[in-house]
Design a protein that fits this description.
A hairpin with a 6-residue loop joins strand 33 and strand 34. It is built from no helices and 72 strands. Helix content is 0%, strand content 54%. The protein is extended, with a radius of gyration of 36 Å. The strands form 20 sheets. A four-stranded antiparallel beta sheet has the order 6-7-8-9, with no helix packed on it. The chain has a four-stranded antiparallel beta sheet with strand order 13-14-15-16, with no helix packed on it. A four-stranded antiparallel beta sheet has the order 17-18-19-20, with no helix packed on it. With 682 residues, the chain is mostly beta strands.
Length: 682
């Protein structure tokens, strides 16, 4: 049958199969909107065959079409009569067979061409298998089964917690934490549920894990390779990395060997070449599995621009993809620069440069080179330990000048040292400042570049031109994104504008800033004077007056404050969200704060409403709607309504990377995955 795809942006898209002529309308019908703004169907002569009484419609599939009236869906026939009245929340695809799914009251039922409901309406979710009369159904018990519309019965009873359609032939299912493969022909197992993990490597290959080993399934659910691999991964096109018993190689989607699994190392491909190692020697293979560079080297680098650096006992040199030497010399050190415009090398006790053809562009000259620098400003050190900048693209000094120390050029500038003091130069070698500073570094705002300099143990601020904005008389200078300066002088903090002028006469004992507190937001800033804390807005207004005993940032634009020994929560606009009645409070997680009152932990929403009353001995953060809590000396898992998902019967908990958590008891171990799925580990 011919495959067609229909899509109406104002409704939804679906994929179907056009019907044989016997199941189609006797003439082609096309959607059309009438002057009354309603939709109907016309023939080729623009004659109305289905009156325009619908708010939205889809093209006919065979002899039926889905229509909508004011948010309710139905099915109309070629004669304009309603097969199913527009009284449903959704209608499934009409493509496969004569029956179709309809949804009402949140439940799905199966309807025939007469509009009669032929299957019980206790289904809460459907997923139709394209091309066949099969549907995965989710029951009210939240289990999945495979249903045949043709047989009006389940091929696979609803008992699975998950499913994934592989093709018209098979689906992956999960049963009791294990995965298997179900046939679409009769619902039987093509592969029993013994698989512990799955990963789709490509459209042709699904890798499965069984008893700690990996195997291969095809889209039909057939086992291409039994589980005997230590690892498997997709590389490119029809090529896969595979390893077994400490050896690795390449296979294709049909499990045919491309590169035998006899190598100790197989690195990623670069320019269609991969470094391989066998019996301690290195070589290279291409994507076809041909070893074009023999295993004869002690070491090898990746291919770049058709060349790779290799090493033998004689030293380092360069070869091409056919193993032809590019350089005739052997070097004690050889590296390709990040810009890939040249090589830096070492021989005869000096450093030199090579071009991409492997030709030495200068003789061995320098005591040291910094090969990670930009090509036009490579730092080189001469025999007197003085630093220069060298332009490798021009094979000449970048500019005249020698320095005791020199930094890498960034933003068009570099810090250099003469006579024991630092100064700043531009890319022409022009001195923007005198050599007078004990240190210098960059400070960036969203729109401006500054130099933070220090002399006599005091900090100053310079513009990118080298002009002084703030003289060297501050203990601290922090630049904000809006080009304001938070400064500390004589033990007091204040705020200056971009011209270095005071924005307010107010001085503080505490003013949070990115120099001292890099994890805190710039505004509002935490301020304090005489041990009283508040918040300062960007416009220098004290949005929270200096009245609290302490204040700290909770994250997500919330602050915790302390008053009379109790803690409360403030929003970034200064509004009190939670009054001070808490003994402790933790940072927000999924809009909930864990808090402690009278020795017990509970949870409060970020609007200030207590969601779970204090009752626990310990309380963790919410992740994927689940939190670990401790009650009566044992750990369990609750949801945001405070309902137990896992009863408190576990003695130990462990927080793992990526939001994973584990609970252990003497009998079992449960893991909560990063997606919030409970999984028994053993």
């Amino acid at each position: 049958m011919r495959r067609t795809v229909f899509c109406l942006s104002f409704l939804f898209c679906f994929e179907g199969l056009s019907q044989p002529p016997s199941q189609s309308c006797y003439e082609d019908l096309f959607p059309k909107q009438a002057e009354n703004k309603f939709w109907g169907y016309v023939n080729l002569f623009d004659e109305w065959k289905v009156e325009p009484v619908f708010t939205k419609i889809l093209p006919f599939v065979g002899n039926k079409a889905i229509v909508e009236k004011y948010g309710r869906f139905g099915v109309v026939g070629c004669d304009g009569k309603m097969i199913v009245p527009a009284d449903f929340e959704e209608v499934g695809t009409l493509a496969n067979g004569t029956s179709f799914w309809v949804k009402k009251g949140g439940k799905w039922s199966l309807a025939n061409e007469k509009g009669e409901l032929t299957a019980a309406g206790n289904i809460i979710e459907i997923k139709e298998v394209a091309g066949v009369e099969l549907t995965w159904l989710k029951t009210a018990e939240e289990t999945y089964g495979l249903y045949s519309k043709q047989k009006h019965s389940f091929l696979a009873a609803p008992r699975y917690s998950l499913f994934q359609i592989l093709s018209e032939k098979a689906s992956i299912v999960q049963y009791k934490e294990k995965f298997g493969v179900v046939s679409h022909e009769d619902g039987s197992y093509l592969f029993e549920p013994v698989i512990t993990s799955l990963k789709k490597l490509s459209a042709q290959v699904i890798a499965f894990e069984e008893n700690g080993k990996w195997g291969i399934l095809n889209p039909k659910g057939e086992v291409v390779r039994t589980a005997d691999l230590d690892s498997i991964g997709f590389i490119l096109n029809n090529l896969y990395y595979a390893s077994k018993e400490g050896k690795c190689g390449l296979i294709d989607a049909k499990n045919q060997p491309v590169l035998p699994m006899e190598y100790e190392k197989l690195e990623p491909f670069y320019e269609h070449m991969a470094l391989i190692k066998r019996n301690g020697s290195f070589g290279y293979t291409n994507l076809a599995g041909r070893v074009t560079v023999p295993l004869m080297y002690e070491w090898g680098d990746i291919f770049q621009n058709g060349q790779a650096i290799v090493k033998t006992s004689a030293g380092y040199f360069i070869v091409d993809k056919a193993n032809k030497r590019v350089t005739q010399q052997n070097y004690k050190w050889l590296v390709k620069t990040p810009g890939k415009g040249y090589y830096a090398a070492y021989r005869d006790g000096k450093y030199l440069f090579l071009d991409l053809l492997g030709k030495e562009t200068i003789p061995p000259t320098y005591a040291l080179v910094i090969a990670t620098d930009d090509d036009a400003f490579v730092r080189v050190q001469d025999s007197t330990k003085k630093w220069h900048y060298f332009d490798v693209t021009k094979l000449a000094p970048s500019f005249e000048g020698q320095f005791e120390e020199a930094s890498k050029f960034q933003y068009g500038y570099a810090f250099v040292k003469k006579n024991g003091a630092w100064g700043i130069i531009d890319q022409k070698g022009k001195e923007l400042t005198p050599f007078r500073y004990t240190s210098a570094r960059y400070l960036n705002s969203k729109s401006s570049l500054y130099f933070l300099v220090e002399e006599n143990q005091q900090k100053g601020l310079l513009a990118a031109t080298g002009a002084t904005i703030l003289p060297s008389e501050y203990a601290l200078i922090s630049v904000t994104e809006d080009n304001l300066f938070k400064v500390k002088k004589d033990g007091k903090y204040g705020v200056l504008n971009s011209q270095g002028q005071e924005t307010s006469k107010n001085k503080y004992d505490v003013l949070s800033n990115l120099e001292e507190n890099p994890t805190l937001p710039e505004w509002p800033a935490i301020i304090a004077r005489k041990k009283k804390y508040g918040l300062l807005a960007q416009n220098q207004t004290e949005i929270v007056e200096l009245e609290y005993q302490d204040m700290a940032y909770l994250g997500d634009n919330f602050y915790v404050f302390e008053k009379e020994g109790k803690k409360g929560i403030l929003a970034a606009n200064g509004k009190v969200v939670v009054l001070p009645y808490m003994e402790e409070v933790r940072p927000q997680s999924e809009k909930h704060f864990a808090f402690k009152k009278e020795g017990k932990w509970g949870y409060v929403f970020n609007t200030g409403k207590v969601m779970i009353n204090p009752q626990y001995e310990e309380a963790g953060d919410f992740h994927q709607n689940l939190a670990l809590v401790k009650l009566d000396g044992k750990w369990g898992v609750i949801n945001k309504q405070g309902r137990w998902i896992l009863k408190n019967e576990y003695t130990n908990v462990q927080y793992l990377p990526n939001g994973k958590r584990q609970l252990q008891s003497a009998l079992k171990q449960i893991e909560i995955t990063e997606k919030g799925i409970l999984k028994q580990v053993n």
